[in-house]
Amino acid sequence: MEDENLFEIYLLLNLIPLAYIICFICLYIYHYRDGKSRSRYLSKSLLVKSVCTVLMIFFSLLHTLEAYFSDVHEDSVRYARITFFSMMAISWLLSLYLLIFEYQRWIASPCIGNKWFWTTNLFSQGIMSLLHFTCEEKSVSIWNCTHACVLILGIATCLILSALAIFRPDENFLISNEPLLYASNNSFKKQVYMRKNSLHDNTHDPQMKTFIKECKVKTEGNTQVVYFRILTVADGEAISVLRTPQNFEMLHKSLKLKFPVEDFPSMELPAFPSFTASPPSLDLRMKAYNKYLDELCRPEFMVEALMDFLEIYGELRDRFLDCYKLVS
User: Fold this and answer.
1) pTM for the whole thing?
2) Do residues 13 and 127 lie in contact, with contact meaning Cβ atoms separated by under 8 Å?
3) Which of 10, 61, 157, 210 is exposed most, by the fewest CB atoms within 10 A?
4) Over the stretch 81-94, which tens digit does the pLDDT of each residue have?
């Protein structure tokens, strides 16, 4: 292939790292004020992503050195290749930073971030390999052999990253240490919460387990707002909702109005979480609100306010409300 054509191809390939750098800047500006806290969950796939990204940084640097010392092309093609591989090295470095950035802030990886960059690089690695093995002038040298090996390894690494981007895109959420998160068969364990009641057959009562699966701090205007993702597993159906501490407080006030001490002296509402530290850590808040939910999900509190809070509707809602009527 003529050098003029090679120059045009590498010039077009330069658009990939350039577009990613622009996307990275936009994502960073949009999310840099998002809060972060200590994470306690590190998945194997997240570790694999980090290792593969580091490898791609190393491979890009080797490509840059090969392009710099190679003398088989005209200066225009040589400079185009050096520019492309240098920008790819920078892009992969930013990709690693974005991976850590999203992990620390529990940001769901958007399509314009690492997802498209990793999958697009599988395509660009294939183009470079095709050029190297079929079109570019070949000579036996240490740089040429290194370039060929690195291209093959780069394709394999990008293939792994592309698969993770599609099937395991988000490994950045704080996962609760609840022992009932998953059963050995990857289905949610059901926890019977109903009290023994000799007046009715409890074998047909709905079963529930409610817990906070993850949390995130989001900057809205000049205020940082904590969001908890609450997962309710009821009779095999999983319901996910986002709630803030203010939503918890409104629920507690609603239940206090529903069950005043004067009218229900024997009924004890769970103590609402209070914190001495200012501000309390996300870890501490999750534990406190998880405990509150665990104590709250009992038959005597299965009222409209709790159903609205958990967004339980339809037939399942009616069944829970019926359970409240039986024990009230």
Assistant:
1) 0.59
2) yes
3) 61
4) 899 999 999 999 99
